[in-house]
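Dear Dr. L.,

I hope this message finds you well. Following up on our conversation about the binding site, I have prepared a predicted three-dimensional model of the protein together with adenosine-5'-diphosphate. For your records, I am including the exact sequence and ligand specification that went into the calculation, followed by the structure tokens. Please feel free to forward this to your student if that is useful.
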Amino acid sequence: MRYNKNMVNEEKQQEDFISTVSHELRTPLTSIRGFAQTMLSSWDALDDENKKKFIQIIEQQSNRLINLVENMLSVNKLQSFKDKFVYKNASANTLIEPIVQIIKHQYPNHNFETVFNNKIPNILVDVDKFQQIMTNLIENAAKYSNEGTNITVLTDFSCCPDYILIKVIDEGIGIKEEDFDKIFTKFSRLDNPLTRRVQGSGLGLYITKTLLKKMGGEISLKSSENGTTFEIFLPVENVENQAGKPFKGCG
Ligand code: ADP
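The resulting structure of the complex is given below.
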């Protein structure tokens, strides 16, 4: 009985996934085809400026498709348990610094700051996955805030000696408390003018939370109309195999 029920659930989940994915793929593909067709049929009538604009849109939409496919592959790996975690002792500060530099380059009109506590212990993480998590959070901070605002990445001891604390603080549009759970689910994007303007698949925070949990960490957030702070906890190196185990919390 239970087997059948699980099968039905799985099939339903798969159907929902395929229908959402098809929808997500169709939007950029329709746009790419539309602009390519317009250029082909009206090539002589279009001036160089318009041709350039259309090609830029095609490039943007192709990038959107690539990001989407990469995120979907990550989700697929996570769900099929094929994802291998290779744990290493590493300094969070050293791993975060180059990520901030790269994102700073992509968002030159935001003010990035790092406030690192140099006394925190090393963490025990899969380095690539840690970098994927930090990239998602810092990029989101820039995507969902206006140019000229501050983004701070902070590391410190946490309330529990077994974990360090990392904060990504922005002065962006904020997230309503009733949406706190929703943003960590697959394909969820909140409806506001900035989200409509910036590209995204709604998979980043789902991937972030799943990876963190698998590495024995946790994520939470605080938000108001003045901005959002994401807080992540990660196990320190000397905690007997805490990496990959459920987060114990600070209690
Ligand atoms: P994506 O950015 O690709 O849409 P995410 O899963 O990373 O997907 O985020 C889900 C949604 O959560 C975003 O679409 C946005 O509405 C909201 N969000 C994420 N980070 C922030 C942030 N720092 N400030 C405000 N809203 C955010």
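In brief: Strands lie at 87-90, 111-116, 123-126, 150-157, 163-170, 218-224, 227-235.

With kind regards,
A. P.
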